[in-house]
Amino acid sequence: MYAYGYEYVYGRESPASLERAKIDGGRSGGDSEDMAGMAVHHIAFRVGDLQRSLDFFVDVLGLEVRRDARPRSVWLGLGDAVLMLERREAGEPPLPAGSMELVAFRVDAERKSRIRQRCIELGCFDGETEHTVYLRDPDGRRIAVSTYPL
């Protein structure tokens, strides 16, 4: 398993991974050739209230509906990928309160500024850095919009 450039074996960095990190400058987890042709296809969020989440992602992030299969799901456009909002089933646990797990979307500076302002108005603003604005969706999921160059 690879995490942040180091191979972990049962929760500890292995000596081989540390040596490999010295050799390849910290890169790990496969060559770029291994990733050729790979990109995000879809992201699926399980949501407590499909309409409330749909309204949020359309209003705040400006995403557009690509497929409406209510009451089960709605797909929103993310460039060549989709964000699937899927109704959480009865008995399915909600997200842990205050979770710091994160999905970040790339935006330009103008869109980041608009989203920041809208989040402040709605009370879902969750902080920011120079390049990134953090927010919480209606289920408490941590979302970010970022201009950070990759």
Please give a structural write-up.
The chain is an alpha+beta fold and 150 residues long. The chain has two domains: 2-31, no CATH class; 42-146, Roll (2,3-Dihydroxybiphenyl 1,2-Dioxygenase, domain 1). The chain contains three helices and eleven strands. It has helices at 15-24, 50-59, 109-122, and strands at residues 2-3, 6-9, 12-13, 42-47, 65-69, 73-78, 81-87, 102-106, 125-128, 132-136, 142-146. A hairpin with a 2-residue loop joins strand 6 (73-78) and strand 7. The two termini are 23 Å apart.
Topology, pairings included?
Blueprint: E1 2-3, E2 6-9, E3 12-13, H1 15-24, E4 42-47, H2 50-59, E5 65-69, E6 73-78, E7 81-87, E8 102-106, H3 109-122, E9 125-128, E10 132-136, E11 142-146
Parallel strand pairs: 4-7, 8-11
Antiparallel strand pairs: 1-2, 2-3, 5-6, 6-7, 9-10, 10-11
How helix-rich are the residues, as a percent range? 10-25%
Q: Write the CATH fold name of the largest domain.
A: 2,3-Dihydroxybiphenyl 1,2-Dioxygenase, domain 1
> What is the fourth-level CATH superfamily of the largest domain?
2,3-Dihydroxybiphenyl 1,2-Dioxygenase, domain 1
Average pLDDT for all residues = 85
| CATH class annotation of the largest domain | Alpha Beta
Q: List the secondary-structure elements in sequence, H or E.
A: EEEHEHEEEEHEEE
Oligomeric state? single chain
Q: Strand fraction band?
A: 25-35%
